[in-house]
Design a protein that fits this description.
Strand content: 15-25%
Helix content: 25-40%
Number of strands: 17
Distance between the termini: 62 Å
Length: 514
């Protein structure tokens, strides 16, 4: 009997914001149930840490230079093969509900699905509009609840046919809007500040300092649930984007200045004259709104699991929970993602399948979101087509990792110097200990990328000795042999998947030898 497959994916949910991962930030009992009754995977990585390309990699089982979805402004060609089409042809009933974010209209809407309803773009938290095969309409309520309702209805209508369900939550993507039932959480307590919150970005490539992802200076009023005041940029903060005149960043308080901000929900005034205390106030506002938004995801995962129990489907259903990438929760003073640094690179990955996955198991075998589609097909008993570039994670999830499992992941961010976060283009590889990153810093004509003339740089991190990635050792003679070894791994991986390098290894090695 072939298993049902439920793939639950949130947006920007950091592994540290799931209590099963042990960070102690929040409690997610339903997500923890997946880990307790199945596997918590600790080394699943995204191949491009940004929404649209990650989703394309998951759906197609290919890297972004192959599926051509490289930035937020590139849209999927829905004529291409994808895993839903393979499963549907193989006898599965297929459905997707929630966030799609790979384009809209006849050339980009979901294909390969028997039933679907997706939000336009990022979607709305309240009374969201959905695109259905027959057109658009709004559904009253809270997005996380509604997406779960649609998913449960799909399961109910599937009858005895095996099903493949992609339940794609919009949450907890900014601007973070928790359900009112959770606004009491953390009301009287502070969330611990990450030890790297006040990072000065020394000993790193220039891209780290250039990024506009700092909690102290780059979050907008809406992110923090504050009233956006009228006035000039010099007083109330700069525009986030020139063409959105109502969205401003909360300014970074300078020594000698005073600022008063107003809570949009209660009208309470907060006045600050200390720049550090104001930065930490922003962190607390950000984290509490983010974690409260996560709580509805946990609640609705519980609804799905309870439904499977009630209908007698739990034993023969694979349930996977992940996020489209990681997210910075104040580490290095940042929010957002995009970078190959660990908090952004790691995807949470929890899975349960009573027939084959050992309860309470964990894994550190390196996997990538390109591996998801082959995994679905493997469990469905269907052939993995030659166009897919990933490898089935099934033996890893069943705690029988083969000896030839490649303990390496490849990441490439294409959207150089984007107009919001100014994150620079890079690629690299991570193995079980080391991470090599090449900041090639070129827009390459990609949609949404912008040239800025930044020179290329290399970074090498010893993730065992330097888990916070604070010291670039690419130029350290003591790591010269490691650099050469990781460069060889990078070259081999790019050749294997057919991606075109922007570096010349021969020149790099000659320079290393001098």
């Amino acid at each position: 009997m072939r298993p049902n497959i439920i793939f639950i994916m949130s947006d920007d949910h950091a592994a540290r914001a799931i209590s099963a991962y042990g960070a102690g930030l929040n409690r997610t009992p339903n997500l923890d149930r997946l880990a307790r009754e199945g596997m918590r995977h600790d080394a699943v990585y995204v191949t491009n840490s940004i929404c649209t390309p990650s989703r394309a990699a998951i759906l197609t089982g290919t890297y972004n230079h192959v599926n051509c979805v490289t930035t937020l402004h590139t849209e999927i060609d829905n004529r291409l093969p994808n895993v839903a089409k393979n499963l549907r042809r193989g006898g599965y009933r297929t459905g997707i509900f929630g966030k799609w974010h790979m384009g809209e209209g006849p050339a980009h809407n979901p294909t390969g699905f028997d039933d679907w309803a997706v939000v336009p773009g990022q979607g709305d938290y309240w009374d969201p509009k959905f695109i259905f095969p027959e057109g658009k309409r709004r559904i009253p309520g809270y997005a996380t609840d509604i997406i779960t309702d649609l998913s449960l209805n799909f399961i109910e209508e599937s009858g005895d046919q095996p099903f493949f369900l992609m339940c794609h939550h919009k949450a907890p993507h900014r601007n973070f809007e928790p359900h009112p039932k959770y606004t009491h959480l953390w009301a009287g307590e502070d969330i611990p500040l990450p030890e790297t919150f006040n990072d000065d970005y020394s000993n790193r490539a220039a891209a780290a300092a250039a990024a506009k992802m700092r909690i102290r200076s780059d979050m907008n009023y809406e992110d923090l649930g504050l009233v956006t005041p009228p006035g000039p940029a010099s007083k109330v903060g700069p525009l986030m984007l020139d063409f959105i005149p109502w969205m401003r960043k909360v300014p970074d308080l300078q020594p000698g200045e005073t600022i008063t901000v107003i809570c949009a929900e209660t009208g309470e005034n907060f006045t600050f004259a200390d720049p550090q205390k104001f930065a930490e106030f922003k962190y607390q506002r950000y984290m509490k709104r983010y974690l409260r938004t996560v709580q509805s995801i946990d609640e609705n995962v519980g609804r799905l699991l309870d439904y499977l129990d009630e209908k007698g489907l739990a034993e023969n259903t694979i349930v996977i929970y992940t996020s489209d990438q990681g997210f910075f929760l104040g580490e290095h003073g940042w929010f957002d993602k995009r970078f190959m640094y660990e908090e952004s690179l790691q995807m949470p990955f929890l899975t349960r399948y009573p027939a084959a996955i050992k309860p309470g198991s964990t894994s550190k075998d390196i996997a990538c979101n390109v591996d998801f589609a082959p995994t679905f097909l493997d469990y469905a008993g269907l052939p993995i087509p030659s166009y897919m570039q990933g490898r089935s994670m099934r033996p890893v999830l069943e705690s029988r990792t083969p000896g030839d499992w490649e303990q390496l992941t490849y990441h490439r961010y294409w959207m150089h110097n984007d107009n919001i976060h100014e994150a620079w283009a890079h690629y690299g590889v991570r193995d079980e200990r080391y991470k090599l990153i090449y900041w090639y810093n070129d827009d390459l004509g990609q949609l949404g990328a912008r040239p800025n003339g930044a020179p290329p740089e290399w970074e090498l991190f010893d993730c065992e000795k330097d888990p916070h990635e604070l010291t670039n050792v690419a130029g350290d003679p003591a790591y010269a042999s490691v650099f050469r070894h990781m460069l060889a791994k990078l070259d081999a991986k790019m050749a294997e998947i057919g991606d075109m390098p922007e570096h010349d290894s021969a020149s790099v090695l000659r320079e290393l030898a001098t």
